[in-house]
Amino acid sequence: MCWRRYWHGIHLEPSKWSVAWEETLAESYNKQITRKNFLQGAGAAFAGLATGQLPAVSQAIINSQEPLRIGIIGSGRIGGAVGLKWAEAGHHIFFSSRHPEELTDLVASAGEHAQAGLPDAAARFGDVILIAVPYAALPQVGRDYSSLMQGKIVIDCGNPRADRDGPMADAAIALGTGVASANFLPGVRLVRSFSCVSWIQVQQAPRSPERIGIPIAADDEEAARVTARLVEDTGFDPVFVGGLERAREFDRGTPVYVRGMSAAELRETLGL
Ligand SMILES: NC(=O)c1ccc[n+]([C@@H]2O[C@H](COP(=O)([O-])OP(=O)(O)OC[C@H]3O[C@@H](n4cnc5c(N)ncnc54)[C@H](OP(=O)(O)O)[C@@H]3O)[C@@H](O)[C@H]2O)c1
């Protein structure tokens, strides 16, 4: 995949969350969201979880506003667009491809804190990993790299579609992507997000005057908090939907999928 294929002719400015808490948090978000009240609400909802048992590296991440080390597996349209925004926000980005030599322009656009390599290196590099591959590749990505991502925050934005991914897509859609992706990615702190926004919308973010909302589903408090920060860093408003089981509510084909809804519109449509 050649990154330039997608970006040719487009001007780029150089340098830019298992059960109980869903209800609690959904209620807390039935109001205008800000990053501050997202984090406060998420914290309250997760108060019963034993965060002290979480990996130390993650505690450091969430307790800091320092740049994150982010590995991207699948640096195509959505992975590339999101990675550029995160780089612009000051994060350290490791773009990956099975053909990393094709990522030269993307890395150059992302600036001095970006690099490229093979997917296993991205999995090792990141405290946070974004997986942005065709959904049919997710089982293999999980088999090959889950061992390298144990305990790490992994954001999965892939969307199963049978016309591209074959019959496995129908099985994933039936399960819901939160549950299906978790089966493919054992041992990671999985988040479903960035799945129902298009790469063009990412490029154009932040939308004015009202930002587009991005749903987040995860079973892990810190993973959801970190993802909320990263959603903001791309120029969107985070909307916490619930645990992974609820990711299906914003899967492809749902009323909120790639509609460019604001956070308030998302919450109203999703009944949050
Ligand atoms: N396009 C969007 O606006 C958008 C928005 C939200 C979500 N999504 C979802 O995000 C996923 C990616 O979409 P996309 O449009 O960005 O696709 P894309 O442009 O084709 O990029 C996919 C990337 O995945 C990499 N890849 C494919 N198989 C791989 C494997 N087995 N191991 C490691 N890397 C692999 C490819 O890199 P190499 O071939 O170079 O290795 C390629 O760069 C899809 O599931 C899609 O449904 C897309």
Poorly predicted ranges: 1-34, 43-56
What is the straight-line distance between the termini? 39 Å
Mass-distribution shape: globular
- The overall number of domains is 1
The main β sheet shows up as:
8 strands, mixed
Ligand roster:
NADP nicotinamide-adenine-dinucleotide phosphate
- CATH C-level class: Alpha Beta
Helix content: 40-55%
How many individual β-strands? 8
What percentage of amino acids are in beta strands?
5-15%
Compute the average pLDDT: 84
What is the CATH topology? Rossmann fold
Structure report:
By secondary structure, the protein is α/β, with parallel strands linked by helices. The protein has one domain: NAD(P)-binding Rossmann-like Domain (Rossmann fold), CATH 3.40.50. Helix content is 42%, strand content 14%. It contains 14 helices and eight strands. The protein has an eight-stranded mixed beta sheet, sandwiched between helices. Helix 13 (221-233) links the parallel strand 7 (213-218) and strand 8. Helix 3 (35-45) packs antiparallel against helix 13. It is globular, with a radius of gyration of 17 Å. The termini are far apart. The protein binds NADP nicotinamide-adenine-dinucleotide phosphate (NAP). The site of NADP nicotinamide-adenine-dinucleotide phosphate has 25 residues, from helix 5 and helix 8.
